Amino acid sequence: MGSLATEKTVTGWAARDATGHLSPYNYTIRKTGPEDVVVKVLYCGICHTDIHQAKNHLGASKYPMVPGHEVVGEVVEVGPEVTKYRAGDVVGVGVIVGCCRECHPCKANVEQYCNKRIWSYNDVYTDGRPTQGGFASAIIVDQKFVVKIPAGLAPEQAAPLLCAGVTVYSPLKHFGLMSPGLRGGILGLGGVGHMGVKVAKSMGHHVTVISSSGKKRAEAMDDLGADAYLVSSDAAEMAAAADSLDYIIDTVPVHHPLEPYLALLKLDGKLILMGVINQPLSFISPMVMLGRKSITGSFIGSMAETEEVLQFCVDKGLTSQIEVVKMDYVNQALERLERNDVRYRFVVDVAGSNIDDAPAA
Ligand SMILES: NC(=O)C1=CN([C@@H]2O[C@H](COP(=O)(O)OP(=O)(O)OC[C@H]3O[C@@H](n4cnc5c(N)ncnc54)[C@H](OP(=O)(O)O)[C@@H]3O)[C@@H](O)[C@H]2O)C=CC1
Ligand SMILES: O=C/C=C/c1ccc(O)c(O)c1
Ligand SMILES: [Zn+2]
Ligand SMILES: [Zn+2]
Which residues belong to any copy of the Enoyl reductase (ER) domain (predicted)? Predict the structure, then answer.
């Protein structure tokens, strides 16, 4: 690995253009700073955001880009002022690796809402280098943006919690939606959605999955423990469920109408948008006025909430449902994710893929 004073060469799998195709790429990471933690990547989950970014759905992608923001690894080196971690610890890194530490969100410990946030990839670090993500042999991160993986959680199991898990936990906590007995809807049963079902069920909610097809009905009810299942195109089923839900977590990653889902909410119900959609969504105002309903959004969770959701999953015995693949399968995994063919999160076994041995450009 080298020493604190050297720039280490790592191998990642990078997209070079908006085809989003990943291939081996060598680059250096910065010398280990006083508060830096160098992590040998063990596993990294594949989030739909990785597709949005690699394929430039948001119009701001820079290449070469090494995606991956559900990173679990082993600490191999720490800077002299790192107090929380030491070599050998199993740790996690998520979507954010920097913030200003001075603004209102930073002082309120919701640093994900800092306007100077630094993304774990497709961004520029304080030293002017591009940030690169977790589909790589190693990543270097300031200790503030590292969490310890608690005992009792397998590293591959922990990976999806670092984005998908905290993304559902945070709004349920923030909006006061943790009480048992609430009726929740999960719109889109993918990586984020399946964690939504599991976390909401663990909070004692009655959970309805709202899906684009009937294909996942049996698994949603039998394997994930959902209480009800609606196919969004089934008008009769949707009408029968009108005014029944306290909240809906909307994870659909493409443009879609909001009104069918607003109609499912009770008085004061909340539609919580999660999907990254680069086109305006629309609804007519009576759909929210006549029922005092809210449309809101939420972005991952804070570092504190990330630690909390990891422990929540240990305490409740919650696991993610994953398909573990090697790095040389990552492009097929991305294609399958885009065509809605995964139950429910791919996790790349990075350390088991010997990526340092691959010829890299
Ligand atoms: N706000 C935040 O902090 C975060 C946002 N995200 C965003 O949330 C969205 C969901 O992420 P993730 O759960 O990883 O994605 P997945 O692809 O795993 O799941 C999305 C689900 O939406 C449904 N869906 C409906 N239409 C489509 C379509 N045309 N293509 C694909 N899926 C469709 C499918 O469920 P079904 O079969 O049930 O219809 C699918 O499983 C993405 O936009 C992602 O960028 C992700 C993490 C954090
Ligand atoms: O997967 C996590 C990131 C989500 C995300 C949310 C909003 C946005 O504009 C992004 O670029 C990413
Ligand atoms: Zn994500
Ligand atoms: Zn800030």
Answer: 20-348
